[in-house]
Amino acid sequence: ARRQGRRLGLAHARRERMHGQKRLPKDVKHDKARVEAKRKKAGLYAQLSQKVFERRRDKRYDEESLALAGKILEMNCELYSLWNYRKEYLQPRLRDGSSASGDSEGPRPSHEAAEPEGKAALVQQELRLIEAALQKNPKSYATWQHRKWLVALCHEIHRREQQREAPGGTVAPLCDLQNELALCTLLLSLDERNFHCWSYRRFVVRLSRADLDSELAFTTDKILQNFSNYSAWHYRSALLPEVNKVVSLEALMAGDNGANDSNGDGAGAGGGGCGATMAPPPAWRSTKRGAQGVRLPLGVLDEELKLVKEAFYTEPEDQSAWLYHAWLMSQLVGGDDDGRHGHGSGSGAAAFGEEDVDSRLAEEVRSCEEILEIEPEAKWPMLTLA
Questions:
Q1: pLDDT tens for each residue of 215-270
Q2: 82: closest CA among 99, 64, 69?
Q3: How far apart, in Å, do the first and last CA atoms of the chain sit?
Q4: Is residue 337 a contact partner of residue 298, using CB atoms and an 8 Å limit?
Q5: Minimal CA–CA distance to 52: which of 32, 35, 75?
Q6: What is the per-residue DSSP string for 57-80?
């Protein structure tokens, strides 16, 4: 009973952290003045929406129309049609004629591209609008997608302008990717399980080629703050194969990263030093074992198994850590290309040695049995043993 009470208390605490708002009493919720204020706000919203959609149908791409669209998006940021309206306004002004790639959607208003200073001002204005919308709804699909579109466009424009620049010259980027990472860090400090923000962070890391060791340390901090963080575990499973690429069987057995990093400078990532950086797509496409089919070194697997066990003994009913554990087991046991486990060339026994694999599997069985002695009804250790 005490254990159940502790679990319920932890669950309640997690809900409080995730939502952070108390339910209003009925007498306050249905107060006449409050209801009247909501009715007026709804009427204003309907009028503004009608005006803005009429202006979009008329292909009006002026500052007044976009300001009205911004006001509505601050009230309801899920109106993806209005984000698209803003895309139609922004894209031709941010691009110049030579960099247009024909990937835009919708009508293309005819006017000259803005000057560099004007482009930067447009981008910053749009980023501020998106941040205001995210303050209202930090899990808005449409808002995060619009920010991703804007940052990707700015990155493409900067890359093309840099290519045209004279040797030795530099072009200031329209969007600071380090600021974008800092924004993700801030939002994840408020809600560490905001998977929209985690997805956007991975996107920014790919563009900026950020230090993967730092990203791995970031996931460790978030996991230790709250073991029930599926996004952090998932990100970790994508990072580890990139950080721990190996070049030989001896390095794999020793737990050494080798020198095959994404920069080609011979510096291993997991062992310290200057660290690895994220290779651009398609290097992040995952396979059964991880990025580019990389198998983790044995020493790294041991450390990850220690970390995931901390989660098991703290919250044995939470599925996030158990799903990550299943991925670690696939790294340890492996299998042939057709998915079968065994002793083939793709198996863990062939990579690590049968004795090392068997000893670790036995240890994981003991851990599951020990958890079941404490929590006999726990589902996940039973499924793992099965």
A1: 999 999 999 999 999 999 999 999 999 998 755 556 555 555 443 333 333 333 33
A2: 69
A3: 27
A4: no
A5: 75
A6: HTT--SHHHHHHHHHHHHH-TT-H
